[in-house]
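Working notes for the structural subgroup meeting. M.R. asked for a predicted model of this chain before we commit to crystallization trials. I am recording the input and output together here so anyone reviewing the notebook later can reproduce the run.

Input as submitted:
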Amino acid sequence: MADLSPAQLDTLRSDLWFGSLPPDLATDLIAKGVLRTLAAGQHLFFRGDPPDGLYAVLSGTLRVSGLTEAGKEAVLSLVEPPTWLGEIALFDRLPRTHDVLAEDETTVMHVRLADIDQMLHKTPQYWQQFGILMALKTRLVFISLEDLSLLPPEGRLARRLVWMVQSAAATQREGKVRLNVSQGNLALMLSMSRQTANRALMALQAQGIIRVAYGVIEVLDREALADVAHLTFTERKVLAHLLGSATDGQGK
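Returned structure, recorded in token form:
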């Protein structure tokens, strides 16, 4: 059983998905979980590794990326608490799709694939809960793909910050939100040059929406950021659902 501290348990419960699970399933995941701490630069797994279960990030940051044949890195995302990852391989049992490494010292809770299979064999209806986890991730991926196709760099950056704030807000409920991301990593995630990302960030800082420091972006005004990102009615509804569910999860 994962020996979670009260703070780690609160972090886990603040996650939208975990916070809405049936109590028995949530208890089983914690009971089967094993804590693991990674040093900065240490890989959690590599692209092509066999599936080994699910992970929940409890502290630190994971970098999800891939390398081209020419050795160029494509950064898909930076995963912070209280996000879960690894659900794709739970369904298709195929090798891992990307490299995942720790940006800084990072603690995760690992639930082995064999233990999850045992839970699902005992209670097959739990498959729906894991399907909801994958559906949530898929919804956010589709939004990001549309942004990449249709929006200029400034709009893409503002919208990515909005979704990053959603994740961070699960553990930073009020006021300013601190995003531990460098300008270089943000540019890589958005497929733009660092210079282009810097210009967009400086424009947001000039409006008093964010404050930029070394390796950190502090969001000062979430509502203004959402306005600059031009979120549609549907996207605002999804965002409100994510934030509202995270708040509900904290009260459990």
